[in-house]
Design a protein that fits this description.
heterodimer; A: mainly alpha; two-stranded antiparallel sheet; 7 helices; 73% helix; B: 122 residues; mainly alpha; 2 domains; 5 helices
């Protein structure tokens, strides 16, 4: 609670608002388009959540062929296509990150130093890193337990989704890998 | 130094913030967890696939504990040791040679991980 209260202090919010204003100054977008865009994004998110929910609840009986309690693993593309697409997207993410650093070298600073010296952003980054690792641990333990108890693990849902829509799955893998390459393979 | 109402620097927090042997303890913990998972798999307590996921869980759990330690110390510094605020070099590697290799940890981990995960996933 104390940490949350500190992070939500007014000057932290002000920094965020200033950043948004700076973006708007640089790329002025008509207010109406922003509102329509936000409204459309909200509808898209709700539709996506509904779709994920309906697909997830119907998957074990509906979307893909199931044999002995698990989905088939034959997909439209060879699995190597997914692997190499993910690797290429990861490298592409890194290259875009490197390009930004070359064009705007003033963005480079270590956490806790120079432009990132204030404790607020440092704590936010540490909080995100800690939370992400906690989620990753919980998911791995869930997966291990699911394989032991016989309930559908996340892996089966992903197999099923890939079988149902391989192109979207490929796009999802590429997008995820691109972001990982962009954020986690940091240029010097 | 004026503390502006803060509690004066605390020796325990100052000592902890220097991270004495935390990295070594994490390596030992990770090794123990992995040995435990391997033992459970060998004795038949856990199937091979679950053991694989538990191995990754051991890795992420160890990293989580390290991050949690860092986060807690940072929050304590905020209260007890404002001089150390913003210090990001708690786990900084001093050696330039090692740092050069660390740069490649992310791509290497991604490529090896996705290859390994791909065959494991199948």
């Amino acid at each position: 609670m104390v940490v949350t209260a500190r992070l939500c202090r007014r000057h932290h919010v002000r920094a965020l608002l200033l950043a948004v204003i700076r973006i708007r100054d640089r790329w002025p977008i008509p207010q109406r388009i922003v509102r329509i865009g936000l409204f459309g994004a909200a509808i898209a998110i709700v539709a996506l959540l509904w779709k994920i929910w309906s697909v997830t609840t119907s998957t074990p009986t509906g979307l893909c062929a199931v044999l002995n309690g698990s989905p088939f693993t034959t997909f439209s593309y060879p699995s190597q296509v997914f692997v190499f697409t993910a690797i290429l997207a990861y490298v592409a993410g890194h290259l875009t990150s490197r390009y930004v650093v070359e064009v705007r070298p003033e963005l480079i600073a270590l956490l806790g130093e120079e432009r990132f010296e204030r404790i607020g952003p440092v704590l936010v980054v540490k909080l995100f890193a800690t939370g992400s690792l906690l989620i990753a641990t919980i998911l791995n333990v869930y997966e291990a337990r699911a394989f032991t108890t016989g309930t559908w693990p996340i892996t089966y849902f992903v197999w099923c989704a890939t079988a149902a829509s391989p192109l979207l799955a490929l796009l999802g893998a590429a997008t995820f890998s691109f972001l990982i390459g962009r954020w986690l393979w940091i240029p010097r | 130094m004026p503390t502006r109402g803060r509690i004066p620097p605390n020796q325990v927090v100052a000592g902890l913030s220097r991270a004495p042997h935390v990295g070594k303890a994490a390596v030992v913990l990770l090794a123990l967890l992995l040995v435990g998972v391997a033992g459970a798999e060998r004795t038949g307590l856990v199937p091979l696939i679950s053991a694989g996921f538990l191995g990754f869980a051991a890795l992420t759990a160890t990293l989580f504990l390290l991050c949690l330690y860092d986060l807690v110390i940072s929050v304590l510094e905020l209260r007890y040791d404002p001089v150390a605020l913003g210090a990001s070099n708690r786990f900084r590697v001093a050696s330039d040679v090692v740092q050069e290799y660390l740069r490649w940890l992310s791509p290497l981990g991604f490529v090896v991980g996705i290859m390994f995960g791909h065959y494991f996933w199948q």
